[in-house]
## 1
Amino acid sequence: MADQRITGTSIRLDGVVKRYRGQEKPAVERLDLDIEAGDIVAFVGPSGCGKTTTLKMINRLIEPTEGRILIGDRDVTDENPDRLRQSIGYVIQSGGLFPHWSVAKNVGAIPRVLGWSRAKIAERTEYLLELVGLDPGTYADRLPRDMSGGQQQRVGVARALAADPPVLLMDEPFGAVDPLTRVRLQDSLLSIQQELGKTIVLVTHDFQEATKLGDKVLILSEGGRIEQYATPSEILANPATPFVEEFVGSGATLAQLTLTRVRDVDYEQVVTASVGENAEEVAARARAAGHDWIVVVDGRGRPRAWPTLAEIATKPQISDYIDARLPVVSESSTLNDALDSMLAASQGGVLVTDGRGVMRGALRIDTVMAVIRAHTAEVRSDDEEPSYISHEEDHHQEGS
Ligand SMILES: Nc1ncnc2c1ncn2[C@@H]1O[C@H](COP(=O)(O)OP(=O)(O)OP(=O)(O)O)[C@@H](O)[C@H]1O
């Protein structure tokens, strides 16, 4: 992410220990950790290893028993915790919104405490709702209970970013939503991060999620012991300990698919059309491009339907088809997400959008399969003795 603007700050945990009263063993024995400004770091590890305890010591929702915590150059170990928390965004599972406050009131909570003017809060709220993919006109006055879990979670992210904190902490943020919503929220977080460049620390139970979101992944074992702290590809290529190997285990092949993003592969251009356009002209455009389908987009270029030319030929103009099961992923989605989305929609392809949902192209299952085959071949040639491979080939030739 060399071209990314960074507004986050570094975080350092220096000899941090947490002993809970009445517990014999410390939850976190002694942790030294450096998180670089602008990185997303994902904490993973088995239940009870100390992920949440470590996360909450960063904003001192849990007070460390020993050690120091630095945010940028600021030693915050003894800082007033309320003040500290105003400079650290915090997102929990299910959003943690105040249920009887409107979305706008929830998002403006910290700015109000900070004494911002009404106009500034309103402007910021509008910007943030747009950023997290919620139309301010539709949602600003809604109550959380009238929104889906995924939408509430988006509001939770907007609220955490309200005072533009350099650091965002997220505790299992996408744990409570269905798998497809989860993928959308992950993609949305990645596009927000592309725009903002915060330092984000997140706890997850899901190694796939950690490899998708994390610039670096921290794998902990009991007592907050660091087993490995590295980029996802380093962890997959060189697990540091037998613990890591086992933890990553059979998920490794799938995780490799997680390392490839849709934007890294050659997906196709598509022919788009707006509602009301002349169907014959659109069809001619599609045929010229060698396609027997088109994508209908709305006024902002977002996909609405994916009809075949036969379907659009039934009417003189492009009508407003709505396709509720349209398989869509974003460029920052992983190939794994793309495959899931194809399977869920029983289609041999997915539409690809940018971070704001604007149409970019289509990815076909053949392309994904080609990437998987190329990767498998690469792993073979890395791992296996050349003599073994030629042996295999001989064997096949004999058999055929
Ligand atoms: N308030 C508390 N009082 C006493 N012990 C606690 C408290 N909170 C956590 N612990 C203990 O500290 C250890 C680490 O807990 P923590 O919640 O940080 O783990 P975790 O890795 O986040 O677990 P999970 O994945 O299950 O959420 C566990 O043994 C837990 O039982």
## 2
Amino acid sequence: MRYLVNSEEMKRCDGNTINEFGMPSLVLMERAALAVYEELVSGGFDLSRVLVVCGSGNNGGDGFAIARLLHLSGKRVDVLFAGKPESLTEETQIQKKICENYGVNVGSNLNISEYTSIVDALFGVGLSRNIEGRYAALIGDINRSGIPVLSVDIPSGISADSGHVMGTAVKAAKTVTFAFEKIGHILYPGSEYCGELKLCAIGIDDRGFMGQVPGAFTWEESDIPKLLPERKAYSNKGTYGRGLLAAGSRDMAGAACLAGKAAYKTGTGLVRIYSEDCNRQILQTLLPEAVLTSYRKGEEGAALADALQWADACAVGPGLSVSSEKLEILQTIIRSGDIPAVLDADALNLLSVHMELLEGHRQPLILTPHIGEMARLTGIKKEELILDLPGYCHDFARKNNVVCVLKDARTVVSDGKSIYINTSGNDGMAAGGSGDVLCGLILGLLAQGIPPFRAATAGVYLHGLAGDDARRRCGARGMLAGDIAESVGAVMSWDTEDGRASQAK
Ligand SMILES: NC(=O)C1=CN([C@@H]2O[C@H](COP(=O)(O)OP(=O)(O)OC[C@H]3O[C@@H](n4cnc5c(N)ncnc54)[C@H](O)[C@@H]3O)[C@@H](O)[C@H]2O)[C@@H](O)CC1
Ligand SMILES: Nc1ncnc2c1ncn2[C@@H]1O[C@H](COP(=O)(O)OP(=O)(O)O)[C@@H](O)[C@H]1O
Ligand SMILES: [K+]
């Protein structure tokens, strides 16, 4: 698990490290500068002529220290001081003075095109408003120059809190950040502006939060074993849960099949698909392992109560279609009481015009909207939602007492308390049916007893890893949702020797 911090959390952690543990600010700055220096000299950048662009905040202080380290190692380096002298922080003033004492050329009007590499130390996590005027012009010049840029901490102009471009932003080839990744490094478009992201330790760690931990986190590879449901040699299919999937309709059997397959691939003991009669043959052919309960059009609901009694967890929505009968199915599931349920796709479309169904619900609910579905659920425009995915996801989850999985290239999950931001997956997953696979994956984890928020976050992370595995096998363009479902088995065996070996190939 890695924390993803916003600017306020980072500043609090910096401040505690300095004021409570007594670590001098200049020592942290020196370590930050050394980390960037190491990155610069380790290759990848042509250091024949380096320009370090410094602002007056502590990001600029890092920049002055980097310039001095480069100068002392014999590199030709100049500093473009773009900040206001009267705004220099105490540390940055000291770093600037040291540079000048060593004879580093510090100018305010240098010709950018003469340089082979640029170090961007204009603004870091202290960026507090949109960039305008001469700063905006300078960033425009840097981006137009085509000269490779290394950004210090975060590309200048990217909000550490949201990943948004604050007016304009530096496009970096590489970004070296310190102590923790910021939310703005992970969310788009910030993630693209960072180029390659390198995280470096500088002597600040989570003790610096002094018990007030950050609100956002992401899973990483070392977490996989603890995210997977347990397997036992002494077991049978009853040991691994029963998942009920209400999905599929005429012409939409595929969604039920993909979700059902993904649920089985997580290791679930039994998956029952509750679907229209017309899908019977196709589902039996495509997923013979599934138990089927089918209903004729107009007779929905009859066998659903029994199926719900039987199940440990339920998912509803993939390919369900929208009609008054389907609304009854959704209603029966939400009113049924206590088993955890995933509401996806058409279940969300039905819900968006019947939000009263969520009032006073008793069982844990996981809702998995993509941005279009979230717009219908909340009445908030898509363009507005993308400005703050974590905030809207968190507020929706808290207000409705659900776990919200807000799907996008960086999916965000919240239970109204914590925020999870996903870092696995790839653009090969941007194709029809990927969401059905996610729905089934979460259902499988729930059926095996994983608690809802853990099942949702682990499901999203493992889904992305399955997408990464599918891309390795089929390529981003060639992979289909079925390939992601196929790869779920590989990521679910990561905790075994066989699984790790096959991933390493
Ligand atoms: N000791 C520490 O606290 C450490 C800080 N570090 C560096 O310090 C950075 C944070 O430093 P600061 O908090 O001083 O902030 P920054 O250096 O990011 O920038 C703040 C300055 O920019 C101005 N500013 C903000 N938005 C602006 C805009 N749109 N247009 C014009 N001016 C704008 C502010 O008024 C302020 O003067 C980190 O990103 C990191 O690079 C590192 O050296 C590690 C240790
Ligand atoms: N560019 C991308 N990078 C990573 N994941 C992606 C990307 N595009 C889509 N995905 C993932 O694929 C899934 C798509 O789900 P959804 O939009 O419901 O598709 P569908 O309805 O076709 O199944 C989501 O889990 C989403 O996070
Ligand atoms: K920067």
